[in-house]
Amino acid sequence: MSKTFTFGFLGEDVAQKNFLVHYLESQYKGVFSEVTEFGWRVKANTKDEVDANLQAALLFKIRFGLDVLFIGRDTDSSEKKSVESCREKIANPFKGQSGVIFMIPIQCIEHWLWYLKWKRDNSGSTKNEPLESFKRTQAKNVVYGEKAKAETRMHLANSLLADLDVTWLESRSESFRHFHRQVTDFLTQYAKGQ
Questions:
Q1: How confident is the model over 81-134, as pLDDT tens digits?
Q2: Which residues partner with 33 through β-bridges?
Q3: Do β-strands 32-34 and 68-72 pair in parallel, antiparallel, or remain unpaired?
Q4: How far apart are CA 50 and CA 118, in angstroms?
Q5: What's the whole-model pTM score?
Q6: Which of 32, 41, 166, 39 has its CA nearest to residue 99?
Q7: Which class for 48: exposed (0-12), middle (13-18), buried (19 or more C-beta within 10 A)?
Q8: Strands of 32-34's sheet, edge to edge?
Q9: What does the alpha-carbon distance between residue 106 and residue 44 come to, in Å, rounded to a whole number?
Q10: pLDDT of 145-166, one tens digit each?
């Protein structure tokens, strides 16, 4: 694929953005290019700020001519009804818009990282350990330790993301699979239009 897709990101925290950047680099090197000015215009640090800035994100997606807008938001719950409600709430303002991809981990992004840590710590195991029902605080403690500073957390996350096995993670986490399929569907639709 010779086209480079421009993108912007609106999400709750640096951990989500870090995951997204590593994912795109490891799976689609050179295919996506971030328009950093978008991030200066539309910012969020909480789920409420993400929710409040959805319309602004769409307007700036259009203004900057972005190919893709990634929206990252935690569900803060593992209950299926809550997860579906969150997905609908976030997707609703973008009905009919192409190039909007939702990254909505169950509870928090650290659950995806926990799966990667579990795989690293249990290499060779084929056991499918469901982790997303554990509390967010437990996921963060398992991934980062109890009192890790921001720099340490980023270093630990990066070490887990260095060997990102998308196929394996997709087989373990329904929320990751939902995200990954949106990306592959976007690229497939583009390829069909060529």
A1: 888 888 888 888 888 888 999 999 887 899 999 999 999 999 888 888 889 888
A2: 6
A3: unpaired
A4: 29
A5: 0.92
A6: 32
A7: exposed
A8: 32-34, 5-11, 68-72, 100-103
A9: 19
A10: 887 788 889 999 999 999 899 9
